[in-house]
Amino acid sequence: MAATKLWRVKRPLAAAFSSGTAARPGQPPPPEKLTVRHQAGGIRNIILSNPRKRNALSLSMLQSLKENLLYDVKSKDLRVIIISAEGPVFCSGHDLKELASEDDVKHRSQVFEICAEVMTLIQKLPVPVIAKVNGLATAAGCQLVASCDIAVASEKSQFATPGVNIGLFCSTPAVALGRSLPRKVALQMLFTGEPLSAQEALMHGLVSKVVPEDKLEEETMKISHKICESSKSILALGKATFYRQITQDLDTAYKMTTQVMVDNLTLRDGQEGIEAFIQKRKPVWSHSQDEKK
User: 291 by DSSP, 3-state: which?
Assistant: First the structure.
């Protein structure tokens, strides 16, 4: 769903985000990349790169985002993923023009299905995913923030689910919001469409941290580098376990996590971490899920 305000933005560094190949005379120009992926030092940056459409989650954008999330995801070199965006709008939600056709039910279904797939995929990935938000995140864009493991926002960021104002209730964003926010806060957002400020989002648990705009990159990288100091296999086990136990009753959750702790100790990196602590040295992680022989 699109933001209620229109934003006029200039697309910076257009050449850097193009396909790199010029169109021949008589041929249409090559399609622009809707997301940009680059990786260094274990940290993958995925940038929503369609600011002229307020980084709307069109079918093509969702497919591109999914591809970049899954790319070589099992590699030991990948330790954390950051999702950010170009322009003053982090993400305005679904592209309403794409959903406007009266008879294209199949296309609409495909958009919502892949959106749900991407949102659930984020929590199934073996590495932490951080939303780096600098601007407005509305509807499915707000859902994207709520679906990430960690969210760092600038002070100017805002979060809203305004679909009710245009007759399209934010039912799928409500899934992520209802699991991130207190019920009455989530329902107020859904019923009124009114935005939360960055500080309100922090207070209610939608984001992890709020910083001045000029500190956003520094703080996000600080968190990312700290994550990179740990074993990928241990983090993968911990993340998967967290999302499994959170939906269970207390007794079942403790029973399941007790066994996970035991299993954790059998892993090579589980033993390495304890041995390094006892020996007062820095651990040397294998990042593998192998058990220590």
Answer: strand
Answer whether 44's CB lies under 8 Å from 37's CB: yes
Helix (H, G, I), strand (E, B) or coil at 83: strand
Report d(CA 161, CA 137) in Å as an integer. Answer: 9
Contact 18, 33 (CB under 8 A): yes
Query: Is-contact 79 43, C-beta < 8 A?
Result: yes
Distance CA 45, CA 83 (A): 6
Residue that has been written with the tokens 């070199």 in this structure = 77
Report in angstroms the alpha-carbon separations of 215 from 134, 155, 285: 11, 10, 30
Sheet holding 196-197, edge to edge: 89-91, 136-138, 158-160, 196-197
pTM score of the predicted model? 0.87
Residues 109, 103: Cα–Cα separation, whole Å: 12
Distance in angstroms (rounded) separating the CA atoms of residues 71 and 213: 29
Least confident of 20-34, 85-99, 177-191: 20-34
